[in-house]
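Hello K.,

You asked for the raw outputs rather than the summary table, so here they are, unedited. I folded two proteins back to back in the same session to keep the settings identical. This is the first:
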Amino acid sequence: MEVQYINPFISAMNKTLETMLGILPKRGQPYLKNNKITEGDISGLIGFAEKNIIGSVAISFPQETALFVYEKMTGDKLTTLNRDVQDSIGELANIVAGSAKTILSGKGLSFHISIPTVIVGKNHHISHKAETPIVVIPFHLQDFTFIMEVTMKISKQLSD
């Protein structure tokens, strides 16, 4: 997958967190994922597809990061990944996917996004639909970390 298709997701993440939390995350070195297990305790997953494109984006947080993000978004301090935290992580994934979609549509890539799915639990699996490499982008948010996984398959007809 080409950098030009990953960068809109990174830009969308940066803009979303800066706007919602007042904090610009720092991006770590991207790498390719070689299994379905994610690093977080809670993940928001959004699929996207159209005639020539299929893919997904997942944002995975350790519990302490998810609780920090929730507190910064709402002002409420929680100690467990309750339904409100789950909803906020799903909404965050939705906003990032929607923002990336807007950026990519300016490059001629049009697609529909799904409603968010939220997965909770240690060592949970994420099944991305595209049979392509999964790029993992680590982020640092003050003293906290999280990752974003992006995969996208674009048919030859579109990329020619």
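The second followed immediately with the same parameters:
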Amino acid sequence: MAEKFNSDTKLAPEELAKHLRQPDGETGKQIGLLMNKSNKHICLNSYKVLTPQKEDHILEIGMGNGFFVKDLLNMADNLTYTGVDFSATMVQEASLFNKKLIDNKSAFFKEASIENLPFDDHSFDSITTTNTLYFWPQPINNAKELLRVLKPNGKLLVAYRSKSCMDQLELAKHGFQKYESHDVEGLLSNAGFKNISTQIIKEPELEFDGKVFQIEGIFTTGIK
């Protein structure tokens, strides 16, 4: 049986797409909860593909309400996590969901844009981002900004849905830039990443507003 993701928000597709890009206010909070359902498998699989190592400092771009941060921090000893999102609503929600992790200084959350990250060069051992690529305003420059804050030999993982998958969704006609894996590999190469590879992981079928989709998560990695 397909897992269900029915928005029940009564939002027009373009309005729903706007909140998926940058959740805002009470509606944004509800969209964040819905994204926990639709993004569960791709997010958790992205952490597995990332394979964090003991004492790594990990940056996540666009963590939403941070519901899965606890799962990432359980994957290795003494991990430190920083999540950034350009939605103030999501930063507030993530801080509430992860108060204990913040209190013990294993997680930090900041409102920031991928265009200008508030971190020094060579700050992070790895970077992960899930379903944000569609909204990067200047993809090559944005990838270069991620390269800047990675340590030498650090890993970037970009998780996304394929263009062929996204083309089936009405909401993805509004403000989404869609990619196939070869597009993302080329993007990372042009930004200066090395040893680029892509892994595809099948997920359970997903019912979205009455239509059933066969879902795959695509995970493209590059090394600084």
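The beta strands are 3-5, 57-61, 80-85, 107-111, 124-130, 150-160, 194-202, 206-208, 211-213, 216-223.

Happy to rerun anything if the numbers look odd on your end.

Regards,
P.
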